[in-house]
């Protein structure tokens, strides 16, 4: 029998300075997604990098959003949300969805002919995941939303948009100016 999990409720005595933590986290390259929902019957989206696949059976994902955001309130109210995984040419979409304090209505970016998803779908995204809210857990000033995947669609082509050191990049940007290294992998156990 596995050991029981112990929940730690007291924070550490000393916490890292926020600026040091933010700098350290900026070194972690991640994909960029737009979490979509409906606000006043209009498509709304917020750019995040705190997104992960949690389970394949049943298909479950998680996203973390500021608890006081319009997106967090919309997901809580409707019980559903979507995640559009952005492609390299969608920097403008990412910037739009990350504008502090600005309205993030997405009419100019969504596919108006997409009727198979109950959440707004960003046109040209690499993939879109349509979710039903399974659980929400508040942690500090954020809420982690766990979504059961109702539908997933993919474009089958394209390159992802990345976020690294507070900038949107593509894999080509990361490799620019560096010589290509050719490698050949062989099975080491033969």
Q: Could you characterize what this model shows?
A:
This protein is an alpha+beta fold and 190 residues long. The chain has one domain: Pnp Oxidase, Chain A (Roll). The protein contains 4 helices and 10 strands; from the N terminus they run αβββββαβαββββα. Strands 3-2-6-7-8-5-4 form a 7-stranded antiparallel beta sheet. A 3-stranded antiparallel beta sheet has the order 1-9-10. The longest helix has 9 residues, at 18-26. It is globular, with a radius of gyration of 19 Å. Residues 177-190 have low confidence and may be disordered.
Record keyword descriptors for this entry:
190 residues, 10 strands, 16% helix, Pnp Oxidase, Chain A, alpha+beta, seven-stranded antiparallel beta sheet
Taking all residues together, what is the mean pLDDT?
A: 86
Can you tell me the CATH class?
Mainly Beta
Q: For the record, what is the CATH homologous superfamily label?
A: Electron Transport, Fmn-binding Protein, Chain A
Any idea what the CATH architecture is?
A: Roll
H and E string? HEEEEEHEHEEEEH
């Amino acid at each position: 029998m596995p050991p029981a999990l112990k929940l730690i409720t007291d924070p550490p005595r000393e916490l890292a300075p926020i600026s040091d933590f933010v700098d350290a986290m900026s070194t972690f390259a991640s994909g960029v997604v737009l979490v979509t929902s409906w606000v006043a019957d209009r498509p709304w989206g917020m750019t995040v990098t705190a997104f992960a696949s949690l389970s394949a059976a049943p298909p479950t994902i998680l996203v973390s959003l500021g608890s006081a955001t319009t997106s967090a309130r919309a997901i809580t109210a409707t019980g559903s949300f979507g995640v559009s995984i952005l492609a390299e040419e969608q920097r403008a979409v990412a910037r739009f969805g990350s504008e502090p304090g600005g309205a993030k209505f997405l009419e100019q970016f969504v596919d108006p002919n997409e009727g198979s998803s109950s959440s707004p779908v960003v046109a040209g995204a690499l993939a879109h995941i349509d979710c039903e809210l399974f659980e929400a857990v508040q942690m500090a000033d954020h809420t982690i939303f766990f979504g059961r995947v109702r539908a997933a669609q993919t474009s089958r082509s394209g390159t992802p948009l990345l976020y690294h050191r507070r900038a949107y990049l593509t894999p080509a940007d990361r490799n620019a100016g560096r010589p290509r290294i050719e490698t050949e992998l062989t099975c080491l156990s033969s």
